[in-house]
């Protein structure tokens, strides 16, 4: 009789942890590209927006390419976390399912955010001054990003509570998740203000930073299990 090989129950957390670390690194690299290239804020003049996108097409192409990687890694992360929590036999399955639904919604909204951003880059090619269509596309991009913030908040809270309840993270990571997720939800309530250049977007940026910290810390903890 052939020997039945049982899966290593210690391998799954390490795999999910590796996915989390890869996702954190990819997100960090993408945001670094935006920062180093001097990406404009939503409060900047439309003329500055046009100049930036006309002069940084190559850098933006790399940043947009990373979004495809981010999307895949995010879906793998929330799905893998859901599997870990369910196999642990502990509470938290409902939170992990919420994280999966939130992650799927977030992936779709981030994809649309990047798609509208690509349209802005293409529209900037050859323009010497902003047109109403160009400005409209920029505001459309900002509006989709603002709507993505509460989706990230739901994903963050669901993942943080699921991982903690399942016994995979510490108390401070749960607190980080609830706090960061709440900031993202609050920022999402002011979506029209954010799309119009309000500094309320800083709440979302802070929440996004806390999300990356949580993902990296959780990834390190899982790979050490």
Automatic annotation (TrEMBL):
> Is Transmembrane helix found in the keyword set?
yes
UniProt keywords (A-Z) are: Membrane, Transmembrane, Transmembrane helix
Give the residue spans that cross the bilayer: 15-39, 59-85, 97-124, 136-163, 175-194, 200-223
Q: Which domain of life is it from?
A: Bacteria
Protein name (database record): DUF4386 family protein
Q: Which organism is it from?
A: Roseovarius rhodophyticola
């Amino acid at each position: 009789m052939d020997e039945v090989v049982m899966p290593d129950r210690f391998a799954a957390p390490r795999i999910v942890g590796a996915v989390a670390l890869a996702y954190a690194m990819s997100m960090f690299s993408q945001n670094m590209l935006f920062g180093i290239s001097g990406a404009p804020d939503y409060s900047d003049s439309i003329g500055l927006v046009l100049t930036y996108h006309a002069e940084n097409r190559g850098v933006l192409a790399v940043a947009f390419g990373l979004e495809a990687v981010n999307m895949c890694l995010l879906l793998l992360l929330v799905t893998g976390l859901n599997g870990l929590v369910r196999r642990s036999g502990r509470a938290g399955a409902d939170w992990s399912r919420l994280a999966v639904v939130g992650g799927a919604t977030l992936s779709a909204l981030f994809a649309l955010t990047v798609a509208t951003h690509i349209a802005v880059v293409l529209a900037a090619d050859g323009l010497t001054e902003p047109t109403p269509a160009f400005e409209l596309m920029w505001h459309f991009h900002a509006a989709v990003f603002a709507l993505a913030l509460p989706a990230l908040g739901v994903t963050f809270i669901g993942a943080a509570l699921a991982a903690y309840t399942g016994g995979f993270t510490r108390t401070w990571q749960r607190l980080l998740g609830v706090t960061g997720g709440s900031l993202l939800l609050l920022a999402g309530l002011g979506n029209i203000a954010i799309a119009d250049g309000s500094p309320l977007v800083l709440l979302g940026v802070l929440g996004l930073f806390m999300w990356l910290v949580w993902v990296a810390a959780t990834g390190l903890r899982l790979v050490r299990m």
